[in-house]
Amino acid sequence: MGRRRELAEARKLLSNSRLLTLTGAGGVGKTRLSFRIAEQLRRTFPDGVHVVELDALHDPSLLAQSVAARFGLRDASVEPAARLAEYLEDKRLLLVLDNCEHLVDACAMLVGKLLAAVPGLSVLTTSRHVLGIAGEQTMPVPPLTVPDDTDRTNGSEAVDLFADRAAAVVPGFTVDEGNRRQVVRICRRLDGIPLAIELAAAWVRT
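^ thats the sequence. predicted structure below, dont judge the formating
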């Protein structure tokens, strides 16, 4: 829901840089935004968009191997990062690394190597912390917009998200005169954090 400004800004940054990191607190929507950016840019990259989700990976030494596996590369006789760079050398693609915060150093090292070796590679990462390598562009992902006035909800991304998720639980749910103020208070109390709003909306009942 929403995020038009962030989508446009991210596309602009990636058109001028080969590495963009989306930063922000947990639950703010970095992952979902990265997937939407990747989908919008799919046609820009002849060799596709490739997403590697890292939340379940806890051993930094296995990072290159995990990324290589995404491309079907499992040759144990060759160092994974080197094999990956060789395979990608003549390709033009977008690599999305999601949830890098617990592997920042390993991600920085691997991404740096790949960008140096693969001219046609662009990388989009999500993390609570920047990678801190040369050429990295960063874009903080803010919470969703919340109304200043409890009587006005037009244009509020947070309220729109709440209504959308609540309607999935209670078909036909809408924000109206009877519930508007309560919905706005909930969105404010949750600071516009998408994940928290989705969880709250799931408790809506008729």
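The mean pLDDT is 93.
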